[in-house]
Amino acid sequence: MESRHGVAGVDPHKHSATIALIDHRGEVEAVASFPVTPDGIAELLEFLTGSELVIARIGIEGSAGLGQPLTLALAAAGHDVREVQPNRTAERRRRRRRAKTDIEDAEAIARETLADPNLPPAGKRSTPEAAWDELTAVHDWRASLVLQRVRQLTEAEAVLVALPLSIRATLPTTSRVLPQLMALEAGQGEWPGIQAADHIRLDRLLAALQDIRTLTSRIKDLDKRVPLLIEALGCTLTEICGIGVVTAMELLVEVGDPCRFRTEAQFARWCGAAPLAVSSGEGHGRARRHRLDVGGNRTVNSVLHIVHVTQVRCHEPARAFMAKKISENKPKRTARRSHKRRLANVIIRHMWKDAESHRARPPAHTSVA
User: Fold this and answer.
1) Distance between CA atoms of 107 and 192, rounded to whole angstroms?
2) For residues 223 and 126, what is the distance between their CA atoms, to the nearest angstrom?
3) Is 78 left (phi over 0), alpha (psi -120 to 50) or beta?
4) Is residue 125, in this structure, part of any structural domain at all?
């Protein structure tokens, strides 16, 4: 009997995961739900091996979040696991006016997996690594502290505007909030005759200043740990002009295992550095006009933009590249996009080389706690 091929789609949640199997013609073969526990994941793997279908690919939504345990287990079992973005299934459901259930979502994920064989690889690492997990924990904590600090500064700015003009006139004439808070601290007690509500606002601002200092201190403490962690991972991205330790950390955490990308083009498409053709009336030849791909990883794309801006300011090869593109009558936006595409190639090649060297090194204790 000839083997039947198909794909699977997994809709993971906090306590359960639903999987749908469809054949190459799009017919639903089976749907089942399993608890996200060691026994439940083992049952899901048995469900896959017991199917009559030969599973070519498995699509999973949220492979780096709720679907991470399933992604690791499926990859360890030898399956080709791909990431399906939630907006793709949401668009399909909205376009066809379908209900939202776990079964419907799993089937939609499977159909997207069947329709697009070039979906990006799922997860960030197929095998756990202690140093990368530690770096991820530092990165997430630091990002949370930065957001808290920004929120404190944003709220303080609104309170500063509500102060009496007699107090605001004594503050530095700057748009920055922190110098104004420090001036309030230095001049506290020098504003007689203000109302009780203004006293409360001043107390709030002084308390916010203390919170901002605490958050800044914690961020600096975490920043001291980052160089040791990226060194433990064998990362040399900081050798590239425009990439510091924090930027290198962003790339390591977002990209994960760089070897899950087989080509530069696959990485560029994943991070949105590869432009999309936007052409009409040009026939069957090569497209001449392109636009930005907004569907890629926006964090990595933002890093590419920061590196681009830095290199154009102080790196001669980048300045020469931009000048060459502009001399070819390319718009500045197109030249910038081309340079970011080249940077994507440089970064992924650098990460491939680092990963190869790191795997050749003997394991060592990497904790810097």
Assistant:
1) 69
2) 27
3) left
4) no
Give the percent of the chain with pLDDT over 70. 89
Residue 26: half-sphere exposure toward Cβ, Cα within 13 Å: 5
Q: Which has the higher per-residue pLDDT, 27 or 91?
A: 27
Q: Where are the alpha helices (H) located in 256-297, listed in sequence order? A: 264-270
Q: 47 is in which domain, residue-wise?
A: 4-115
Residues 84 and 169 occupy one common structural domain = no
Burial of 39: CB neighbours in 10 Å, binned 0-12, 13-18, 19+: exposed
d(CA 314, CA 318): 8
How many structural domains are present in the chain? 3
From the list 327, 365, 360, 336, the residue with the least C-alpha distance to 232 is 365
DSSP string, 186-241: HTTT--TT--HHHHHHHHHHHHHHHHHHHHHHHHHHHHHHHHHHHHHTT--GGGST
User: Does the pLDDT at position 368 exceed 70?
Assistant: no
The DSSP call for residue 27 is: -
Rounded to whole angstroms, the Cα distance separating 16 from 157 reads 44
Domain of 12: which CATH number?
Answer: 3.30.420.40
User: pLDDT confidence of 367, banded at 50, 70, 90?
Assistant: low
* Residue where the block lists tokens 């300011």: 313
For residue 95, how many C-alpha atoms fall within 13 Å in the half-sphere facing its CB? 7
Instruction: Write the pLDDT tens digit of every residue in 154-210.
Output: 999 999 999 998 888 888 988 899 999 999 998 876 777 788 999 999 999 999 999
What is the C-alpha separation between 108 and 93, in angstroms, rounded? 8
Task: Please name which of 220, 222, 213, 194 lies closest in space to residue 156, comparing C-alpha atoms.
Answer: 213
Q: Could you read off the pLDDT of 123-135 as tens digits, one per residue? A: 787 677 889 999 9
Chain centroid to CA 296: 9
